[in-house]
Amino acid sequence: MKLLSEALSISIDSVPVSPNDRFDIAGVYGFGRGLFTREPIRGSETSYPKLHRLHAGDVVLSRLKAFEGAIAVVPEHLNGWFLSPEFPTFAINREIADPGYLQHLFRWPGFWELLRGESRGVGARRERVSAQRVLSIRVPLPDSVEAQQDIAARLDRLHEARHRSVKSTQHAEGLVASLHNSLCQVEAPRACVGKIMKLSRTPVSIEPEKKYSQIGVYSFGKGVIRRKAQPGSTLSKLKYYQVPSGALILSNIQAWEKAIALSDEADAEYVASQRFLPYLPKRDDEVDANYMRYFFLSDAGHPMILKSSPGTTARNRTLGIKAFENLLIPLPSKRDQLHIAAVLDRAYEAVRRMRQRNQEFDALYQAALSKEFEAAQAPAGK
């Protein structure tokens, strides 16, 4: 454990601001996620008389968000970019510390805790952390730069594998979104929603002492929320209904934000408030509820939901039942509906597995950080 001042020294390139000068502006993410870029500005657009210029290989800190781990090594592609004076910069003593090692150290939650200890206050109201206070922190730092480089190389392999996994997931998400919209952009006879779907509501009489599990619906097509059971006495004064399985469920206050889902067999044990509209096909040989979900989440169907949800603010954009049931939608054959839904089910399941893999990479990387850095914090003999 060594003082960070042995590895870093304050090194600020302060540039005067002229009204007509153009500045490429960067920022620092919290939780060790590195830097990001903002829109460029003119000098006339800032009240700061000076800005700090970044240099590749230096370290930059957000004084305001230091307690959240907003510190990073400046990458090559942001050399010459600018930040406000709220972001002090530090030069790395390359004879003492390896930049790659420090970058991994800055991603370690244990280091964020050390920064948090230098920040007073609570939550977002914490005081700014000065550059000098950061330098007074003791961190795990092997004597040999070569040893640091060996550690960094091992961690690099894990971090790069995770990065490639995230990139491939993002690419897959884009492909699946395009596939989704393409498959739902169908040429087919139009049908009135109210003629092919029915609102299925079986009232439930809430008993104060009995426990009930409620459902909700996530926005952006993320599925059903299943809440823990709670006594009827704690439920709101809304009306409650049984949840039919295999139903298209729309949140009447968030459908405009794609709060649209499909219930499954287990949901029959749950209740839903009057804010959720469960629809079932009137004829099983004509309509597939899963296809209907995918259609209303697509670029073809979602504008229809928006049109049926009048209002100008989020709290007032309530889905009108009559407006929804009066929608005329293209309805392919039941066979085609099942095929489209099955293809999209498989595609989204593949994306789900990729996201799970990303989480596993995250856990593996964090475990590796803890193994490398926590050992140095342990008292001698342990």
Automatic annotation (TrEMBL):
It holds the Pfam family Methylase_S. It is an enzyme of class 3 (hydrolase). Keywords: DNA-binding, Endonuclease, Hydrolase, Nuclease, Restriction system. Residues 224-360 form the Type I restriction modification DNA specificity domain. Its EC number is 3.1.21.-. GO terms for biological process: DNA restriction-modification system. InterPro entries: Restrct_endonuc_typeI_TRD (IPR000055), Restrct_endonuc_typeI_TRD_sf (IPR044946), Type-I_RS_S_subunit (IPR052021). Gene3D superfamilies: DNA methylase specificity domains (3.90.220.20). GO terms for molecular function: DNA binding; endonuclease activity; hydrolase activity. Belongs to the type-I restriction system S methylase family. This is Restriction endonuclease subunit S. It comes from Streptomyces sp. R08.
